[in-house]
Design brief:
about 240 residues; alpha/beta; about 35% helix; about 15% strand
């Protein structure tokens, strides 16, 4: 049987994991920091933070953007359920608009037609690695003062006129699940150019702790960190992307 998706794992990934095991530090630490730096550089974003998986990356991004119960978030009906689930987890309302049959993405004109007084954000999904029309979507968002959360979980390395997806919206989420073109088994990443959003993401995924660490907690948070074992695989996988 031909597998739908088979992870490509080389000696580089194996050696990287062994180095972490031999270091004696397996939790989120210096290797994860390096992975964040390299991934943000690759995407062209100012900040990146690792997360447990793509679903956590999406929910953390929505939370950091201040999405609240009753807010309407326009998104695609043609995507993995995590896109809509994470919106609903915030108590917000996923508003589906029909996709373009040529690209399988939600078209800007359909997005604009769905905007109401309750609309707070747009979550375009770059399905199957096909970028949504981000330039037009960002223009619509600016005109209507809406937030944009890019669901780039299936689009590592995809570009629009030389600019990578994950660098257009106010915040973006990536998944490194085993079926992705870049994978760590499980894992995720959040990218943004906004330092305040980045700081919120750091707190949300780490028990509400601030940058200084320790036992100072500033908000409700979770344990959604990613182990250095996983980040080590991510660093090597990133080198395989064009």
């Amino acid at each position: 049987m031909i597998p739908v998706a088979k992870p490509i794992i080389g000696q580089e990934e194996i050696d990287a994991v062994v180095r972490v095991l031999e270091s004696g530090f397996l939790a989120e630490g210096s290797v994860s920091r390096e992975f964040e730096q390299e991934f943000s550089r690759y995407i062209g974003a100012d900040y990146a933070t690792v997360a447990t998986n793509g679903t956590v990356a999406l929910s953390t991004a929505l939370d950091a953007m201040g999405i609240e119960p009753g807010d309407e978030v326009i998104t695609s009906p043609f995507t993995f359920i995590a896109s809509a689930n994470t919106i609903a987890m915030m108590g917000a309302i996923p508003v589906f608009v029909d996709i373009d049959p040529r690209t399988y993405n939600i078209p800007p004109e359909a997005i604009e037609a769905a905007i109401t007084e309750e609309t707070t954000a747009i979550m375009p999904v770059h399905i199957f690695g096909m970028p949504a029309e981000m330039k037009h979507i960002m223009e619509i968002a600016e005109e209507h003062e809406l937030l944009v959360i890019e669901d780039a979980c299936q689009a590592h390395g995809a570009e629009i006129d030389g600019k990578k997806v994950g660098s257009f919206g106010h915040v973006s989420a990536f998944s490194f699940y085993a079926t992705k073109n870049m994978m760590t088994g499980e894992g995720g990443m959040i990218t943004t150019d906004d330092e305040e959003i980045h700081d919120r993401c750091l707190m949300i995924k780490n028990h509400g702790r601030g940058k200084q660490g320790g036992y100072s907690h500033y908000r409700i948070g979770f344990n959604n960190r990613m182990m250095d074992l996983v980040s080590a695989i991510g660093l090597e996988q990133l080198k395989r992307l064009p």
